[in-house]
Specification:
Order of helices and strands: HHHHHHHHHHHHEHEEHEE
Strand content: 5-15%
Number of strands: 5
Mean pLDDT: 80
Low-confidence stretches: none
Largest sheet: 5 strands, mixed
Distance between the termini: 49 Å
Number of helices: 14
């Protein structure tokens, strides 16, 4: 439940106070009129009043009905200034009828209309118009002003003359106190409304300062994020070029070394070997260009993952003369691009390390699936390494797998062995 603001509470009290005043005056009028009738002094009263008053039952029903209509109209929110002006005028007219039905004894309803209208007005121009209309109406709805204008009216005092002496003075004193209470409530309402608006303005300024501070922090954070993004992109680019060039250059170096050994013995075989090396070099250039432009192996754009792996294994075998065994027991057609890139680069980097650093003559590659996990195992018969230190290749394999919540194991005690664990995103 939303907590009411103080101006709303004061306005709520004003509405009930005006209803109390209305019922107080109406009840007195009904009692006095019925008294004149029962005491058979109605003719004497009419001679004094010179105006026929409302019937006793109407003297309370009509004011209450008009007041209910006024409250209902006040509860309607005007969206445009024209609607606000028209609504205020209608409310003032209803106040005029209330003033008349209570025998010109109370005009404080206009202050209630003014208090409600000011709360709904946002711009100063409309506020001036509303205040002017209601203030003029408040002045006009006064018995003394109407008397000056020679308008035939019957004041409430004429009806209340049914009471005599002290009773009459006490009734009018209570009525005056109620009128003063309404005026004081209106003044208090205006004071509270002004203080509430000052408080809201101060709150808006504080929020604006806080927003400016947050905006400054956001700019600083954005700069840091941009720098971090650049660093990450540089690392990723370095990793892609390293994978591509490392694999290609390893194949070329190994192939050239082999050609150097057999060129005198078997020139034709050496020539074929050189042609294969040239093809590897051209493919490497394409891959470097592709890595720079899109950071994705060119072969994966043209072929599916399984065919791309087969082509990489075959080209490595041809260019280096290393025995390559590739066994894939899992379907590789269900992965997204980022997953395919990681699988391809893991096999590429593992093979490159086996040939370049391990001096291997045999590399076994095995890919299999165990429920929702893909396992990539690469084993070679190279020189191994008992004290494995993370180089650029292993570091980036781990980094790639970590981005997909994977993990990497490796061991260099007997040749070199790595095993990559990659969670399958879509499970079964």
């Amino acid at each position: 439940m939303r907590k009411k603001r103080l101006p709303d509470v004061v306005l709520y009290i004003m509405k009930h106070l005006n209803l109390m005043i209305l019922l107080y005056i109406s009840t007195l009028l009904v009692y006095c009129l019925n008294g004149y009738i029962h005491e058979k002094s109605a003719q004497q009263f009419l001679n004094t009043a010179k105006i026929i008053p409302l019937e006793p039952w109407k003297a309370i029903i009509v004011p209450v009905g008009l007041y209910v209509c006024l409250l209902l109209l006040m509860s309607i929110r005007a969206e445009r200034n024209v609607e606000l002006y028209l609504k205020t005028i209608v409310e003032v007219v209803i106040c005029g009828f209330l003033f008349t039905s209570l025998n010109y004894s109370y005009s404080g309803f206009v202050l209630l209309v003014l208090a409600n209208a000011i709360r709904r007005v946002s711009d100063s121009k409309s506020r001036i118009v509303v205040i002017t209309v209601t203030f003029l109406s408040y002045i006009l709805f006064d018995y003394n002003v109407l008397s000056i204008l020679n308008i035939r009216i019957m004041p409430a005092e004429t009806v209340l003359a049914y009471y005599q002496g002290t009773a009459m003075s006490l009734i009018l004193a209570i009525l005056d106190m109620l009128k003063i209470a309404n005026i004081f409530l209106f003044i208090g309402y205006m004071f509270v409304l002004i203080m509430d608006q000052i408080s809201q303005t101060r709150l808006v300024l504080e929020l604006n300062d806080e927003l400016a501070e947050k905006n400054t922090q956001l700019i600083d954070m954005n700069a840091e994020l941009e720098e971090a993004t650049k660093t990450k992109e540089r690392n990723r680019l370095a990793r892609e070029i390293h994978d591509t060039l490392g694999h290609t250059l390893t194949g070329i170096i190994t192939g050239v070394d082999a050609c150097a050994m057999i060129i005198d013995i078997a020139p034709d075989v050496a020539k074929q070997q050189l042609n294969a090396i040239a093809d590897i070099a051209r493919g490497g250039i394409k891959d470097v260009r592709r890595s720079v432009n899109a950071l994705r192996p060119d072969v994966l754009e043209k072929k599916d993952l399984f065919e791309a792996l087969q082509e990489m294994v075959e080209s490595t075998r041809k260019s280096t003369g290393v025995e390559m065994n590739f066994a894939c027991c899992a379907a590789l057609d269900c992965f997204n691009q980022d997953e395919e890139d990681v699988i391809y680069r893991i096999v590429q980097e593992g093979t490159t390390n086996a040939i370049r650093h391990g001096k291997a003559t045999r590399v076994d590659i095995k890919i299999e699936r165990n429920f929702d996990t893909l396992w990539i195992e690469i084993r070679d018969n190279g020189i191994g390494c008992t004290d494995v230190k993370k180089g650029f290749g292993i570091h980036h394999m781990e980094e790639r797998l970590k981005m997909l919540n994977g993990a990497l194991e490796y061991d260099g005690s007997n040749g070199f062995w790595i095993k990559a664990e990659l969670p399958i995103r879509w499970g079964e």
